[in-house]
Amino acid sequence: MTRLFQKHYHPAGTAPGTLRNLSLEQAALQGPATFLLARRDAGRWGEVEEIVPEAIPCASEEGPLCWLHVQGMPTAEELELLGERVGLHPLAQEDILNGGQRPKVERFEGALVVTLGIPEVDDEGSLHLFQLTLFMGGNIVASVIAEMLDPFVEVRRRLKERGGRALGEPDDLLYGLLDAAVDHAFPVLDGVGERIEELEMEILNHPDSSTLERLHGLKRELIMLRRYLWPTREVINQLLRDHDDLFTPDTRMWMRDVYDHTVQVMDLVESYRDMTASMLDVYLSSMSNRLNESMRTLTIIATIFMPLTFIVGIYGMNFSHPTSPFAMPELGWYWGYPGVWTLMAVVAIGMVVWFKRKRWF
Description:
By secondary structure, the chain is of the alpha+beta class. The protein folds into two domains: 24-285, CorA soluble domain-like (Beta Polymerase, domain 2); 317-361. 54% of the residues lie in helices and 15% in strands. The two termini are 26 Å apart.
């Protein structure tokens, strides 16, 4: 079963910006938060180190550029401390804690908050949608993903290998994180494409009830992917259109490439949705054709035996004569009666096996 966003709600009437810790069961699913920090000193990125929440640097216009990555679900207290240090608005903190937010862009007193959805497929083939929150304010860029998924392995590799040439400004670093988050959808969609090809071959060759079940599951996943990936294009477009003062001309050029990737992602999602819709029509048509073929074969068999059964029903088969070579010797056999029952059972079982191989039921 596909596990999508696990959204949490406060009781009705709760004041906006209220932070409440998750239940023990919810916290166990997402895991405790780990705080990772990387600093850019002397024009080069240092090693990524794990820190305690109390060591989170304060956002300012001066000082070295810092990238703070929070992996896992922070507690309400940790979120409040994070908000105080980097200037994260209480409403943005509430969105992180509740999860399941629609992709969006918000600006609070010069600080930019971007919320995205990242798809991922686990080892069992189940689709998951994870919420990623990005923050840019002053000399700090923060990323928070309240799950165990780590989408920024490649970004850390770039920082380590390229050193001073990699993502040296806050807007440039934010671009790198957005690019990694958007591109994370491509391998997921590649897997969806492979599943569609397998289902197409199965529908054309040997469709059954499990095929229909997997087809409906795939349609549901594509609907959810469209729901959370479609707004991502508007998010990138809004960053370019309404918040261009936070990005340099060079970074805006690279952001247009991210926008192009979001268009490609949505083209794939829409194409796959159309393909699954047509596959459902093909499945229903294939099942109808198979049913017609089965009924035709059974009708032919019944038609052949109908006059024979009629004749046997009138005259019976109890032909016996003491001297005729055409009399039925089975009438005098000691095991004749159980032998006939055995023959009927074998015929019935053989027909069931044949029907199974023909996939008639």
